[in-house]
Here is the input.
Amino acid sequence: MTIRETFQTPGVHLSCEVFPPKAFDKLDDARAVVRAICQLRPAYVSVTYGAAGNTQRFTQEISAYVQSLGVTALSHLTCVNATRDAVNGVLDALQAQGVHNVLALRGDLPEGAAFPTDAHFRHANELIAAIHARGGFCVGAACYPEGHPEAFDRDRDLDSLRFKQDAGADFLTTQMFFDNTVLYQFLFRALKKGVTLPVSAGVMPVVNARQIRRILSLSSASLPQRFLAILDRFGRDPASMEKAGIAYATDQIIDLVANGVNHIHLYTMNRPDVARAIFQNLGPILEGSHE
Ligand code: FAD
Here is the structure.
């Protein structure tokens, strides 16, 4: 099933993200993580892609593995530094393995590297257009409730989002956010710009304080007071931080669903135990259509 079709079915759709291993000898461990996550029967499982190269071939491998377990796979694909032939090669391989959903991204250059002047793709909308023209894929794209770090301002960032829709994207997945008000305001502003695609809201259960430093270095997500209080109180106590992080993410999802957001993507950081706890906490909230 394509993700576009999944989003057309009634009810709440909770999906999970996994990342592939960096080395061949970790492939079995990654498969074990994927098996445990797929047992939760998520709406789909997305598999990240290393823009810099080393994990790229494992993205296809893990995506195919997700499909083999009877769960829809969403394979991430970045285009920074990629040629059209290389992109087509990846798409051919995915298609051959029965993977028909791709999250089309620009990706980031390694720190300090310059953007090549002869780049085949300069922005994600160009990759989306190429995949759309080729056909056979349901195409997702990234969006940023607090603005992309490189964007001049949020208004222009929303113009770029409109380019992705116009290029043929089928749905959007948000960068993580910790304050639902930020998402509601973003959805409102996106709609005013004519962005009408279904949006899956990215929720990250923060289960240790170390993750926060990484989040802040990779995204422009702001941390609300309620979240900072949890970090202050439990950040140095791993067991308590894990409980509190799972409770915070559960609470965030319940509020999203209560406010009509039906598609939620969990940044599971390859922790099936954390994903399982959230699925269990939500229980019947995931089952009914509540409409
Ligand atoms: P773009 O859409 O190209 O946007 C980048 C910047 O350029 C933005 O500031 C935007 O406003 C601007 N812009 C966009 N289009 C235009 C245009 N046509 N003209 C002028 N300006 C424009 N990275 C990975 O390496 N691997 C992954 O697996 C991965 N998965 C991700 C999943 C999600 C849900 C998200 C939110 C991000 C993910 N990323 C991943 C990170 C992503 O690659 C970076 O955030 C990257 O910097 C931007 O990617 P993009 O596709 O949004 O790029």
